[in-house]
Specification:
Blueprint lengths: L4 E3 L2 E3 L1 H15 L3 H9 L2 H13 L6 E5 L5 H7 L4 E6 L2 H14 L5 E4 L12 E7 L8 H11 E12 L5 H23 L2 H13 L3 H10 L3 E8 L4 E7 L2
Parallel strand pairs: 3-4, 3-6, 4-5, 6-7
Antiparallel strand pairs: 1-2, 7-9, 8-9
Length: 243
């Protein structure tokens, strides 16, 4: 770990970032899914459907969905009959997910408050590890990737869905304008929180480009790594295997 890490465009101590990220998601938890629809025009639902198809959950296998508090990915995985543990560092996000599970009549999910950098699960405990739109908010990303590798069984797979670097020139410019100017204003109107959505926009810009993040996944011990850009890299699916 370096002495400071990025919190959006600010440099702060690792401890401060962890606390501030926790505050961001506590603030937006109740409106998180409403904002996801507004921010993406509903496309996040299609991205998540596509992501879970890539994971290929199977009946009876054990999957850890990290940073999955509101349950969006877990609900999709559960439909295939997988045993899903939903983990998040933020108890407010987990509370939203548990309420949504009750509304859907889903009682098979396990909910666990966890720090991605220091998981309490034993070695070789899961068949798959998923994380969607969460890895960029982790303070020590390499540590989280090493933990993902540790808790996977041999033959286990890692899948990450995350915003990335837009490589289409026209879309890149338009997205810059949208994320830096419109997104915080939408956060203010819909969620009553302009600052948190300004941070979320900045965190996307500070996240490593696709080749760099793929190298980080390899450095954590994964092999056969892949990157699948969507909409020119607006989002990307990263994957790897533990052998």
């Amino acid at each position: 770990m370096t002495e400071t890490v990025s919190f959006g465009y600010e440099q702060v101590s690792p401890e401060e970032k962890t606390q501030r990220v926790r505050g961001v998601f506590s603030s937006v938890a109740s409106k998180y899914d409403v904002m996801n629809d507004a921010m993406s025009g509903g496309m996040h639902r299609l991205w998540k459907d596509h992501f879970v198809r890539r994971v290929k959950p199977r009946p009876g296998e054990d999957i850890l969905d990290m940073a999955g508090g509101t349950g969006d990915i877990a609900f999709r995985l559960e439909k295939a009959g997988a045993n899903v543990t939903v983990s998040d560092i933020n108890p407010d996000m987990l509370s939203v997910g548990m309420e949504r599970a009750v509304e859907r009549g889903i009682d098979t999910l396990v909910w666990s408050e966890q720090n991605a950098e220091k998981l309490t699960f034993p070695d070789r405990h899961f068949d798959a590890y998923t994380i969607a739109f969460g890895i960029r908010n982790v303070t020590d990303i390499p540590a989280a990737l090493r933990e993902a590798h540790r808790v996977l069984r041999f033959g286990g797979r890692f899948f990450c869905l995350e915003f990335s670097t837009v490589e289409w020139p026209g879309l890149s410019k338009a997205y810059d304008i949208y994320s830096h100017h419109l997104l915080p204003k939408m956060g203010k109107v819909i969620a009553g929180d302009e600052d948190s959505y300004r941070y979320l926009a900045e965190s996307i810009r500070k996240f490593p480009p696709m080749p760099q993040f793929e190298a980080m996944i390899r450095d954590a011990g994964f092999v056969q790594t892949k990157v699948e850009p969507i909409l020119g890299g607006l989002v990307a699916i990263h994957s790897g295997w533990k052998v």
